[in-house]
Specification:
- With 354 residues, the protein is mainly alpha-helical.
- Helix content is 72%, strand content 0%.
- The protein is globular.
């Protein structure tokens, strides 16, 4: 949801950082820069916590790659057709495999696919030398992001420079951090339980850093981006606060709703730019920001839910949005397959169980 709000804020804020400093949306956007990197941390955590590295490499690739590659390819084509940011053949050739040719947020899936390629070799190294691996990955990501954020591209390298944030070195620290958290899970939980009061303080410190950095920005560029080195520090500072929030949510009445949202979060990530584009056609740009942003967020969330519901009624739901088809859709599909004959209990037994 934070990523969805970020993209709404990006729609209503001017592209120049100097102008953004005079809008509330520009400042709020900066406070949400941890959202996409946190997705990467969770991806590394889920892989390591599920001991995916124990699988043979071929089986690991079959299970994991199939789950993201088909939705990635399908939505890359959709967004390329709608938005078409890449126009020349070299731009399409370089950006399309990284998810940057249409709606640029798909670079995250391209990056996760890159991590899947190296995960069977990286995770054993995290187990053997966790501190050294984290330090090495931190240095790699800091150097990569600093190099491509604060330097000008050489002549002829402009296209590559614009895609550098979609390559694995920019994100490796988040994925290694997720694997490290999974490996040290119990110890970290015990450590955090004794220092829970530190979590909000760390988050406030991180927010203060990113806002101070933004306040110093005078021109557009890396100050607006979630791919500058400071965001790595801010994301790591925010993680304990997110854990604290999760601990509260686990005992609240919101837990069932949160689990439902979490179950379709991959689909939300895929389709919400399309939903935002549709919503923006009906929300006047002339509205003041404080009215336009809530309308765009609410409309985008509603349209996203509608798209996901329609997708989950289709037999190819898992290939489109990474979520299984709804049981009611399975019943309808079975009835359609069997024709006029009403299905009996044996026909639908697997669906009753699910």
């Amino acid at each position: 949801m934070a990523v969805l709000v970020m993209h709404v804020l990006a729609v209503v804020t001017p592209p120049d950082a100097g102008a953004q400093r005079f809008t509330a949306a520009g400042w709020l956007y900066q406070l949400l820069l941890w959202a996409t990197p946190t997705f990467a941390v969770l991806s590394g955590f889920v892989l390591a916590h599920g001991r995916s590295d124990a699988l043979p490499a071929r089986e690991f690739y079959r299970r994991r790659m199939g789950g993201i590659l088909l939705p990635f390819v399908a939505w890359c084509i959709v967004y390329l057709a709608i938005f078409g940011e890449a126009t020349t053949p070299d731009q399409v050739a370089l950006r399309l495999p990284l998810g940057l040719a249409g709606q640029r947020h798909l670079y995250f899936l391209g990056m996760v696919a890159q991590f899947y390629v190296v995960f069977p070799w990286i995770q054993p190294l995290i187990r053997r030398a966790p501190r050294n691996m984290f330090a090495a990955s931190l240095l790699i990501s800091l150097a990569w992001q600093a190099g491509f954020s604060y330097t000008r591209p050489p002549h002829g390298w402009e296209t590559f420079w614009s895609t550098a944030h979609g390559l694995l070195p920019a994100w490796i620290v988040y994925l290694v951090a997720g694997g490290l958290i999974a490996q040290q899970y119990r110890g970290l939980l015990n450590w955090l339980h004794g220092r829970a009061s530190w979590a909000p303080k760390a988050a406030v410190a991180g927010a203060s850093l990113v806002l101070a950095d933004f306040a110093l920005a005078t021109t557009g560029g890396p100050e607006f981006s979630s791919h500058r080195p400071l965001v790595i520090v801010v994301t790591l500072a925010v993680l304990p606060a997110l854990w604290l929030l999760g601990r509260w949510a686990a005992g609240s009445a919101w837990l069932p709703s949160l689990r439902t949202i979490a179950g379709v979060s991959f689909g939300v990530y895929l389709v919400h730019p399309l939903a935002l584009w549709i919503t923006s056609l009906f929300v006047p740009a002339s509205l003041v920001m404080f009215a336009r942003v809530p309308l765009l967020v609410a409309g985008c969330a509603a349209v996203t839910a509608g798209i996901l519901l329609l997708a989950r009624l289709h037999p190819f739901s898992a290939r489109l949005i990474g979520a299984p088809v709804l049981p009611v859709a399975e019943v309808v599909r079975v009835r359609w397959t069997l024709g006029r004959r009403a299905p009996n209990r044996a026909d639908l037994e697997p669906h009753y169980q699910s």
